[in-house]
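Service request form, structural biology core

Requester: graduate student, group of Dr. S.
Request type: structure prediction, single chain
Budget code: on file
Notes: please return the result as structure tokens.

Sequence provided:
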Amino acid sequence: MKLLEEQRKIQAALDQASRDLSQYAYIKYQLDQGKGGFMAETGAAALVGISYARSKVMGQVDRDHIQQISFGKSRILQEDEKILLVMNYRIQLPFSIFGLSSIPMESVSMRRAWVGADGGRIAQKGKAEGENSDQVVYIGKNATRYHSDPLCHYLYNDLKAVSASQMNSLRNQQGEKYRACSRCGSAAADVLYVMPSGNRYHTSELCSAITAYVRAAKKSEVGHLGACSYCGGK
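Core staff response, request fulfilled:
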């Protein structure tokens, strides 16, 4: 059955993404320890993020049958060094049932991050953070605060897939219409991608304007912004 096959492909892709990210997490660990600061500027830190999982899954699914994809519940390296990928989406039914043409679904994959050979990191975490005054933090475009959590809900914009036919009536959180992204918006697409607090629509979920929204920075460089009230003290 088509529906079950799509679910199987999504779960397999999500599991592969979590396996990859559990290994790529070591890049972030090295970054946080100050052993690979140059990687923040080259974008290597973005490997440990939702954009990678999204691209991994979207490369496997039938986009005509999978809609309204969200990774908003996903969490990376927040609790006991775990990778938690949660994909919420709607899947098209082969025929309408009681007036429903699609149903909501959720796929989950979780595993512990690979952190190399440095033993006892959890026990030493508090001490290490106290000693490291130039830790890596995260800021968004037009930032007013820095964040210790790259997926803080004040920082993270939940990218949503919408039908192109909806764009004329769709509004963001400020009540504004979405305009075409200057980088990818000129391409033709039936499915577009928007963020609730953004004001542009994208034809690709991997548009550089999206992936560049959050970047890693040294605390010493952005400390003047002040810590986020939600995640800054964690």
